[in-house]
Amino acid sequence: MKSLKLSAYCLLLLLSASCAKQTVTSFQITSLKALDLEETLTRKDELLMAYTLTSFDASNKAVAVSTGSWGVQEAKTGQEFRENAFQPISIPLPKNGKLVATVVLVEVDDYASAQKTLTEIRRYHDYIKIPAALAELADVALTPLKYLSLALSATGVGFQLADRLDDDDLIGQNNTELTYQQALLSADLKVPLTFKGGHLGSSFHYELNYDLRTQTVRVGRTRKPKS
């Protein structure tokens, strides 16, 4: 009888573990439209986009990051890139915690160098935990570029991309915060962005849209980066 009770108890534990669920938020760019280009001579911009999700626990401690990228892609005036051109990223949203979604759009001058960095970023297909030493850097509000640097450093890429950027390269950057409570109220947050500006007499205008989509999923095994 005792053995039967023990077996039943073990079975309940297994079922409980197999049914464990967590809240996961994904970042999906839905469109990017080039309305006005920075490059007036070539009439095309070479674009690179990097985006990250950084999650924080209920104590406001950064715990994990997920990174994604797009490009290097040539864009012409009036050209629009749709959702299927962009790879989504996702990350668990801790209970009573929050996440910060970051996106940075850049006009590339050094194609080879930018492509090398993108190759490194794309080695990681899942979220990774933030080392304790780096988590301390996220205790205060960061700019989008600093969030990007934090994410790249956590993945081992370091600060290569952010260090190469200057004011003339940067088309636009944005942080959006989503709390656990907000995600429960609205499972699909749409974020419209407008990047407009000018450098040395030339102007640019881009429209970027992305969604933060939250759902409850069964807990799966975390994938490791490719070697």
CATH H-level superfamily: C2 domain
The biggest beta sheet is recorded as: 5 strands, antiparallel
Beta-strand residue percentage? 35-45%
* Element pattern in H and E: HEEEEEEHEHHHEHEE
End-to-end Cα distance: 50 Å
Assign the structural class, choosing from mainly alpha, mainly beta, alpha/beta, alpha+beta, or little secondary structure: alpha+beta
Share of helix, binned: 10-25%
Determine the CATH topology.
Immunoglobulin-like
| CATH top level label | Mainly Beta
| Uncertain stretches of 5 or more adjacent residues | 222-227
Q: What's the number of extended β-strand segments?
A: 10
Please report the number of helical segments: 6
Mean pLDDT over the residues: 79
CATH architecture: Sandwich
Structure write-up:
Mean pLDDT is 79; it is low at 222-227. The protein has a single domain, classed as C2 domain (Immunoglobulin-like, Sandwich). It is globular and about 55 Å long. The chain is built from 6 helices and 10 strands. A hairpin with a 2-residue loop joins strand 9 and strand 10. Strands 1, 4, 5, 9 and 10 form a 5-stranded antiparallel β-sheet that branches. The chain has a 5-stranded antiparallel β-sheet with strand order 7-3-2-6-8. The chain is 24% helix and 44% strand. It has helices spanning 2-18, 111-121, 132-135, 144-155, 160-164, 180-185; strands at residues 21-36, 45-56, 62-75, 80-82, 89-92, 98-107, 128-129, 170-179, 188-199, 202-218. By secondary structure, the chain is an alpha+beta fold. It comes from Salmonirosea aquatica. Residues 1-20 form the signal peptide. Keywords: Signal. This is DUF4270 family protein.
